[in-house]
Design a protein that fits this description.
globular; 10 helices; 7-stranded mixed beta sheet; Rossmann fold; 257 residues; alpha/beta; single chain
């Protein structure tokens, strides 16, 4: 469980598991925790035979922004899994408010365990979850097992240009990962021009909530200040060398690749 908590903290840009109990408060004003529901919907509509008969699996679904949007827009069934009970509660409430609670099923769970049991979905989504499932190759290989032959994978991540000072994958690296795991890149959506403004607004909320927590728990001031600093560093990277991207992939058999 310790390793799971570390990965959970990391996926939400928290450098220590001590922050986990405070994350729902720190992030209470932010519904879309990283991924763009619109980008994912557009990719599916442009490159796949999107269907109301689809079963979609949303891993690390957060507060359900993507799940609820897809269910509302496509009429498909979506199962969302996240380790944070507070996020799952919000997701269910949002689904109810959007009148798609009958299409959405939200579960508290560790996606590392869930991915071993889930199968036969039409689409699987991993949005802005970092390395929770392992390296990119390990992650894609695991995601493949959850969808039907010919099924689709949506991954929200990022890349850097060659020779960037940031230690991260280039676009060329990602294309190699796709080839190694026998998936075909069908489409991609770069983060829009408004992402910097959204990040600034979200950071302002986090700064405010961190200040409130600091007043309530002054002995943990350094903990909250560290989270604010880490979030700001990520915002700066996304405004600089790091480019956010959503990839739409299709699973193919190795011999057909």
């Amino acid at each position: 469980m310790t390793d799971v908590r570390k990965k959970l903290a990391s996926s939400l840009t928290a450098e220590t598991t001590e922050l986990i109990p405070y994350l729902p408060y720190l992030l209470q004003d932010i519904y879309e925790l990283g991924s763009s529901p619109t980008d994912m919907l557009d990719l599916l509509r442009q490159h796949t035979p999107a269907s109301t008969a689809w079963n979609v699996l949303d891993l690390a679904c957060g507060k359900g922004a993507v799940s609820v949007f897809l269910a509302s827009s496509l009429g498909c069934h979506v199962k969302g899994i996240d380790l944070m009970p507070a996020f799952i509660a919000v997701a269910a409430a949002k689904a109810a408010a959007a009148n798609v609670l009958d299409l959405c099923h939200f579960v508290v769970g560790d996606i590392n365990e869930a991915i071993e049991a889930e199968s036969d979905h039409d689409v699987v989504i991993l949005g802005a979850a970092g390395d929770v499932l392992g390296t990119p190759v390990e992650t894609i290989a695991k995601l493949r097992t959850t969808v039907k032959a010919g099924g689709f994978i949506l991954i929200d991540d990022a890349y850097v240009e060659p020779h960037s000072a940031l230690d991260y994958h280039t676009r060329g690296d990602w294309l190699t990962f796709f080839q190694q795991t026998h998936v075909v890149l069908l489409g991609e959506a770069a983060s829009g021009p408004d992402v910097d403004q959204i990040n600034r607004e979200n950071q302002a909320w986090i700064v405010q909530r961190a200040a409130e927590l600091t007043r309530a728990y002054p002995e943990k001031a350094d903990l909250f200040a560290g989270y604010v600093e880490t979030q700001q560093r990520e915002c700066d990277e996304l405004a600089g060398d790091l480019s956010g991207i959503t990839w739409l992939l299709q699973v193919v058999e190795a011999e057909a690749y």
